[in-house]
Amino acid sequence: MVTILDTTTEKRVRHPEKAHRPDQEVMRKPDWIRVRAPVSKGYSETRALVKEHNLVTVCEEAGCPNIGECWDKKHATFMIMGEICTRACAFCNVATGKPLALDQSEPENIAKAVVKMGLSHVVITSVDRDDLEDGGAEHFEKVILAIRAASPLTTIEILTPDFLKKPGALERVVAAKPDVFNHNLETVPGNYLTVRPGARYFHSIRLLQRVKELDPTMFTKSGIMVGLGEERNEVLQLMDDLRTADVDFMTIGQYLQPTRKHHRVVSFVTPEEFKSYETVAYAKGFLMVAASPLTRSSHHAGDDFARLKAARDAQQTKAGGE
């Protein structure tokens, strides 16, 4: 009886680790960051498909502001290994707690959804699963292989956790040959203690670098949020760290506070400041940069992948002609 009551409570309290925190001020959003509520037919169809296959999307779980636009176009980012995360990042709206067992039918269900939605490019992310011996690496592998079998022409982008203290996990995921390997730094290193306390900045940098060592042809990608109190010079140094790891694609978006218990928005970065970051990032050598208030890791991922390939081809053509 006690177990049943505890489980019910865990489901009811989305962020039990944040319940004791004092409420943070919620800043009024500027005009450039407003989005319309999703009401389109395409949105409803995508939502029905997700429910039909018992799938979880980061679009819903993280409260993405672009869900209306993306789901209307039949774009969705699937979140595997459940909807409960073992980490408790101060910025994230994904539920925290003790995860359930892995759903062994999930790889096949995701593959079916990819086929039904006619996706030419799919993004697969996950919660952190520190409770699993391999951090969920085998499950990532199974999902990638299932999609390849069902829809061979679909390109696959993965957004992974950091596999901290999980030897061999990264190598297994890279060996499954996703087209894009994304792992987000989320914020500058000086913010990690308060924003991303379960992670280690230089471990994440090293993970991205290791992907390129394992497969130099694989595209790598990473993203951060701004508005968390970072200084401009800290962002520029982070760009240099990513380029040292040979990361191809960087995304920069505005942090939006999910609830009063989450980390507060320190500032709303203007569109002009985002444009400045984009200009500097290209100058530092990134093949692709997406920087705007509503930029998210998987926003426009399919179009961005096509541009990423074109940028590499142009770079290689130029290098071959010199």
Core attributes:
Lipoyl synthase, lipoate synthase activity, seven-stranded parallel β-sheet, two-stranded parallel sheet, single chain, alpha/beta, globular, iron, TIM Barrel, about 325 residues
Describe this structure in words.
The protein is an alpha/beta fold. It has one domain: Aldolase class I (TIM Barrel, Alpha-Beta Barrel), CATH 3.20.20.70. Helix content is 41%, strand content 12%. It has a seven-stranded parallel sheet, sandwiched between helices. Strands 2-3 form a two-stranded parallel sheet. Helix 7 links the parallel strand 5 and strand 6. The N terminus is likely disordered. This is Lipoyl synthase. It is an enzyme of class 2 (transferase). It is found in: Cytoplasm.
Oligomeric description of these chains: single chain
Percent of residues in β-strands: 5-15%
Task: List how many beta strands DSSP finds.
Answer: 9
Structural class: alpha/beta
On the 0-100 scale, what is the average pLDDT? 87
Q: How would the blueprint of this fold be written?
A:
Elements: H1 2-12, H2 41-52, H3 58-61, H4 67-72, E1 77-80, E2 84-85, E3 95-96, H5 106-117, E4 121-126, H6 137-150, E5 155-159, H7 169-175, E6 180-182, H8 192-195, H9 201-214, E7 219-226, H10 232-244, E8 249-254, H11 271-283, E9 288-291, H12 301-321
Parallel strand pairs: 1-4, 2-3, 4-5, 5-6, 6-7, 7-8, 8-9
Helix pairs in contact: 5-6, 6-7, 7-9
